[in-house]
Amino acid sequence: MFRPIVLLKTVRGEILRSREKAEIAVKKGIGWLALSPPFDSWVRCQLWTRVNVVYAHYVGKSVPYFADFYVGSTIERFARDLAALKKHFEFASLAEVVRQDPSRGKPSRPLLALTFDDGFDTLRNGVMEVLDHYAIRATSFVATSTIGNVNLMWRNKLSAIRALREESLYIGQYNSLMPKVGLPGISRGDELLPASRDWPMALKEELVDLLWRACDMPALEEFLDEHRPYFTWEGLERWLAAGHGVGLHTATHPFCSRLGTEGIRAEIEEPAALLKATLGLRFLPFSYPFGVRLGAAAERQLYEDGVFDCAFGINGLVPQGTPAYRLERASMEENLTFNVFGNVLLEGIRRPAGRRSAI
Ligand SMILES: [Zn+2]
Fold first, then answer.
1. How far is the CA of 291 from the centre of ligand 1 (A)?
2. 205 and 264 share one domain
3. Which one of 111, 121, 199, 230 is at 20 to 30 Å from 353 when CA atoms are compared?
């Protein structure tokens, strides 16, 4: 039977895929240019004027709870990327990079801080050894509701459902669930994660748990016991004792732009206080899930109230002098050379010549 909608969706998918491939190729080219004469020395100079922070998530072999986000970040690739970054930067703690303390003396290369989002345990999968090998002290941003593997974060649940269950099963169950919240269904498995971004944040835990059970997934406790994805509190103590840092990534990983007063209290203020009190933190950085920020006034207020010491999105490297509650980071999981070096070159080209800063 001829099904024009399916055909249209397939053609659209093909166009999107080839556009993605072209974009990756262009980014590779710009990244290569940024590190080639005559641009490389200008780009390196620019990096002295930036707050250089990169981020990653899970590192290791692909696992069900991260399969949807996995882009091949093996331990080997992670180690290679760190070695490459070390040629251009001096790794420093996040606090040092944010504060740019002049009493530290001028380093031989621009400072760079490494961060991890989502609180995956780095003690058991070889990441800690790699960091030790390169003498890098990183910061792990944790979602407090998952510490100790007492819950699986909702995006990780959705990824696990997709990795472990037939597409027709979870599509069917999703589509019978969505009318209850007035949202449309999906027709392809790869629409699950994007579609669930529209869920009301107050209902996301309930919806994902209903879908988990409807798809006959293993008992959550069993799954968590088998995989143990996240840091435990004891693990975080060990991580801190080894010189690394801990930051907040909310309690349950919502879209912060959709939080009201009560949501901000439950997702940011209370978990921030919990981390500080339990781990004795004197510097608490915050990273936004999905890189989606609160309104400007709300995040400034939290900063001024001392809830966190700085807040990060994921929009690339920002100039020094940017307020601590408006900081950003660059991804080191995909297109690393473009994200760190190429973007800086592009911004330089885009900026009118008269406004170019003296270097
Ligand atoms: Zn996250």
1. 8
2. no
3. 111
